Amino acid sequence: MSQTTVDTLVIGAGPTGLGAAKRLNQLNQGTWLLVDAGKEAGGLASTDVTEEGFLFDVGGHVIFSHYQYFDDAMAEALPKAGDWYEHQRVSYVRSKQTWVPYPYQNNISVLPVEDQVKCIEGMIDAAEERVRAKDAPKTFDEWILRQMGEGLADLFMRPYNYKVWAVPTTMMQCKWLGERVAAPSLKLVVSNTLNKKVAGGWGPNATFKFPAHGGTGGIWKAVAATLPQEKLQFNKYIEKVDAEAHTVSLSDGSTIKYKHLVSTMGLDYMIDNIKLPASVNHGQLKTAVKDGLIFSSTHVIGIGIRGVLPPRIGDKCWLYFPEDDSPFYRATVFSNYSPNNCPQADKKLATLQYADPSKGKPSSEAKEGPYWSLMMEVSESHLKPVDAQTILAETIQGCINTELIKPDDEIVSTYHRKFTPGYPTPSLGRDAALATLLPALEKFDIYSRGRFGSWKYEVGNQDHSYMLGVEAVNRALFGTPETTLLNPDWVNGRRNHEMRLTPAN
Ligand SMILES: Cc1cc2nc3c(=O)[nH]c(=O)nc-3n(C[C@H](O)[C@H](O)[C@H](O)COP(=O)(O)OP(=O)(O)OC[C@H]3O[C@@H](n4cnc5c(N)ncnc54)[C@H](O)[C@@H]3O)c2cc1C
């Protein structure tokens, strides 16, 4: 079977792999190739379209860029003003049958008085504990208690984070939160509560951009289109990596030889499928994976609804759900991001069901819109199983329970897909595992990077992932230290504008 030889091989056409490819293309030094098992670019930042024409991302994807180099790539890929919509960040927490503006702690004035008291008492205890404590908190749970106290922990932080991560906060570390996160201001909370004030936390100009067409996946297809197409190969599945020989074997029987490998495959998959020389303790690497690399799966459930967007939804963007009246932790009003995320109003669609199926069987006649849509995320782990057969129905019921939709709303499209893995868990053993695994691979010129390539949630968003790829190339080719991988807190605390996409530097 055929063998190709390149200087740099990139595995994966998600944001990390595309970041690596953009940098290789910009530098124009040596030969390179990118391969992906999928049929197109995007990875977990892709978008599906239902039969009826509703778009759904892999959960709520919003860009909060920390990097000029990333912004340059966005502007190059989608350069026209009409390529993007700009939105105010409007976010709430559903709590005690009401919508509490985010951040929760600054708006507890909308909660029942007994809950306000619990929150404030907890914050006073937490402030005292911060003065008393000699050591830094070790678990996420200790961190929550020390920052916010028992009241906010029990009303929001613990139940919400269990729904997100599918493991209790006691099983998570807290270094990933960074040193910058300040405890909420007790004075502000008390003053807002006594003055019955509600205030958003994003500031007056907090906006975000979303692509007009093709959802989040549209961004990454556009980025891929700026690269030389002959260097991007899809439907190519990597089965094995031979560390010493510097080759990968593909499922079609071919092999690729490289000098440097930037891999965005899961780090666990890499360790399972790599051939290492006898001098390397492979068993120790497998143990590090088992002890430290934990993930949860994400179910994405979408519904398309006939009707005008109800005023109770208005300009809401994304909403958090800590309570157990819904299986999801987050809902996104996806039709608010772009009108093209839904079919146009003149498209005729039949009603599949009333939100509450006990309302009867709807007519099968296809009728016009308008339409709007909701996208929900549900986590799953061995500690928090999800029944794939019933989760769609449970999610729709959860939408009714939380007043997102009404029982007689007409549902015209549904979507459900499970993504494994979805979230890299900042487990107690993660950092020790990464400290063993990543350098062991780098000895063989393998740079495992990306959301699951380097397993760091705090630098696992699209902008970070893209830059992990860019910086991996700089490291492989020039030995430049990587800031995103090694200093998440630093890159997250500033605007990083040292590198630009054009002119080349
Ligand atoms: C539920 C959810 C919500 C999110 N919300 C946000 C958000 O609001 N904002 C934000 O910026 N980011 C968000 N993200 C993160 C964003 O999706 C990631 O940053 C990004 O997709 C990670 O890029 P990546 O390239 O590292 O990995 P991936 O996107 O996973 O890409 C990896 C690629 O490698 C390929 N691959 C894997 N194994 C092989 C193999 N053996 N052979 C060949 N190819 C292989 C895959 O096909 C895939 O295309 C979210 C992610 C999820 C899951």
Automatic annotation (TrEMBL):
Domain Amine oxidase: 16-269
GO molecular function: oxidoreductase activity
Top-level taxon of origin: Eukaryota
Source species: Pseudozyma flocculosa PF-1
Name of the protein in its database record: Amine oxidase domain-containing protein
Matching Pfam families: Amino_oxidase (PF01593)
Gene3D superfamilies: FAD/NAD(P)-binding domain
